[in-house]
Amino acid sequence: MNRKFKEIDATLRGLNYSTDAHFKWLVTILRFVSRRDVELAEITFNDAHNHCEFGQWLNEQLKAEREDKHFLLDINAKHRQVHEACRQIVTAIENKNSRSDAFDLFESTLLQFTESVSHYKQHLLQLRTSYDALTGLPLRRILDESFEKRNSSVEGKGLYLLLLDIDHFKKVNDTYGHLIGDAVLRALALNLEENVRRAETVYRYGGEEFIILLQANNDREAVAAAERLRQLIAANEIVSGEKKIRITFTSGLTRVQSGETLREVLERADKALYRGKHSGRNCTMLIDQHLDCLNVSR
Questions:
Q1: Do 182 and 269 belong to one domain?
Q2: Which of 90, 118, 142, 294 has the fewest Cβ atoms nearer than 10 Å?
Q3: Domain range enclosing 42
Q4: Is 264 a catalytic residue?
Q5: Are 151 and 115 members of one domain?
Q6: Which member of 208, 209, 264, 267 is catalytic?
């Protein structure tokens, strides 16, 4: 399962659990104020936001370098305001000097905190839809949004796009059923992810097609990487229940030229893939910007 996909799911689970815990904390506050039958001395501490479960979860998230950190920083600011407003209410009650404006402040900060959490959750859910539910791989949408940046940020190495398609996948579905076909797709996605470098990304393009962005200094290195993956998959036996299946794939490989759009690169790689499908399959076809193709598996 894709690492980013797992991170999103883990963050959503942690956010939901800690948010629920925060609502329970509010109930505990009411009990503390009305009955004093619970121990909650830290409620009047200046760092009370660090003592609740939500604050502890949030502090762990803030330790990591994340692309969505601005959401967490906003939540953190709102969370601190909630605890400060709550502290003021409790202090006022203990001093028998409670005023309505203190409750108004608490209500306002609580609503702002809830809104901030909701925005972050919406962001995570929207991001999650950009990943394939079956394989956990990022979908075409992620590639569309990140391609230009990826193309301009590769330092000292070239960027290559590998478009691959499972050979005779319809036969797999017809012979074994779609559940086995899904297992084959998951196994292929996992094998590809485990055998590319950390800076390289595997995408589910659609159906039985996948895309990999490879980094290589030249065509020779890119071909070696593509062939290593092809041979690894061809030699690997996929086990699903009592079924043991071997698959192969055909791919089109091309170097991404500076300033090219994703559409231009994909059209070229697709031409190479088409040529490979009509040249016996289970091969890698290298295509240059002049549309000259070479079967590099022979």
A1: yes
A2: 118
A3: 3-128
A4: no
A5: no
A6: 208
